[in-house]
Structure prediction request, 622 residues.
Amino acid sequence: MSSAQFVQYLITGITSGSIYALAGLGFTIIYAVTRIINFAQGEFVMLGGLVAFTLIHRAGIPLVPALFLSILIAAAVGAAMYLLAIRPPKKASVVSLIIITIGVAMLVRGIAGQELTKEFIRLPSFSGEQSMSFLGAHIDPQALWIIGTTVVVTIILHLFLTYTMVGKALKACAINPVASSLVGINPKTMALIAFVLAAAIGGIGGVVFAPLTLMSYQAGVMLGLKGFVAAAIGGFKSPVAAVIGGLLLGIIESFVVAANWGPFTSDYKDAIALVVLLFILLIRSGKLAEEERAG
Amino acid sequence: MIARLKSNWSYLAIATLFVFLILAPFDWFLGQYTTLMIVIGIYTIVTVGLCLLMGYTGQVSLGQAAFFGMGAYISAILSTTYGFNPWLAMLIAAVMTGAFAYIIGSPIFRLKGNYLAMATLGLGLIMWIVFKQLNQSFGEPDGISGIPYLSIGGFVFDSSFRRYFLVWAFCLVILFTSQNIIRSRTGRALRAIHGSESAAESIGINVGRFKVKILVLSAVYASLAGSLFAHHLRYIGAQPFDFLASVKLVVMAVIGGLASIWGAIFGAGTTHILSDELLLRFGDWDVVIYGLILVLVMIFMPEGLFVKLKEVFERLRLRYRKKGVEP
Prediction:
């Protein structure tokens, strides 16, 4: 492998890893605050891309406002999901919450396929199609937008959680919901905020990713799965860890496919994430069991 | 007194079920739905295993379709490419699937709740990818065809009428076996584990061993069902064993009431009829309606439709008993 190829694979890995990171952030935020694995997380990413496409092509809204509107709509779907499906059940078990989020995912996917588009779509690139050269590798300018957006989102989220009152409340609620409700933080409001945040970040992922790759109403399943692996690598604890998890997964995928080793040719690229997931879960199982016992 | 009455009622219910099942495949009754009933029987077998696993030990499996698929694929490959007798293929499939469950059981059960759900989901998806690979190695790109029918001596199960009785005989044997298991010492141990693992451990129950045992049992059930499925359709692809299939199996178990063996028939029946028959009439909206139903059932009846119906029935029974009406 020449150094140019190495850089090429690294950049490809970091680009797709950034999308996994954005999806993984959503999983982490929701899990930390509510202890729910949101199987509809990938659908928010899909919605971001598809809603923006529909706004541009059917409503004739220019690119930039369409992108922002699309992110807002994804966030609104997140809020609706929490208020209509997650909050109502009284004593929901882990299994029933999992099935609820899977049900919502099917609902969103089905409606998107019917009402938005069944086609594979692609948004226009933010800054031209002309690819750039960097250390002998070709870079699509959209890749820089994706990586840049992920960095900015991560920094803003980190500042939000560390320096604002609402962010600190979210953190407190994630650490101990009972104790935080004693000091006047409403866990239900925090859960709503978590869902809105996760959906908005998913939507952002969708709008920056759709210009680089084809997006369809069924794309949410795999995006969700990858995000979930990213969050698992990060331990479902800190947003920064989820982002690192996503980047790692993207880079591993890119290099394993490049090496064309054993069963993991590009046809079976998706299996890599699953193997990584099982590996991570089994290594960490002792620690995870302790956590469940503690709270 | 109440216990005796209750068991009278359940004997009556089981007797009715038997009569219904025997009459169902005849043309003057539900003959046109025989194929549907065969598939429901097959799904019931998988569901019972999942009920034991989820309802009695409290362990989640989002990858049960993997075991189901292993049964189907091992049976299919052995009986086509290698020309094994279908019964032998079925037996080997069950043993291999059971062994696989045993090997993965102890590491995977160190996880709990959400993490266990994730691990089983990952496993299910990996097996699904393996199945797609097996299609290419042993059959056409989309699946394996030319799987022989099961037969006893010269009696071939080549009509759906014959296969109906074969599948439901398997199904009922498995239902009764499972019922005996949960009424035995093992069953009480399982319920103790569901109640509290630490408490169960403290009274001398080997929690880990019991969980793995039940996982193996449920995997063997799923494998048998998969083999029956392969020898019934004579063609299998990877699609009936994907992630949504695992979700469908969990939904069947939940709708049937997790801790209820006989509810499995009800859960498998309603879910299968709903997802594969009724929803098709809504065309492209089927996924939307299916999703909506999942959400609504989980919000309003998290303990399952069957348990809810039983509750309503009990309430009515008590009301009538006050008025002096006894069966």
Notes: The domain at 2-322 of chain B is CATH 1.10.3470 (ABC transporter involved in vitamin B12 uptake, BtuC).
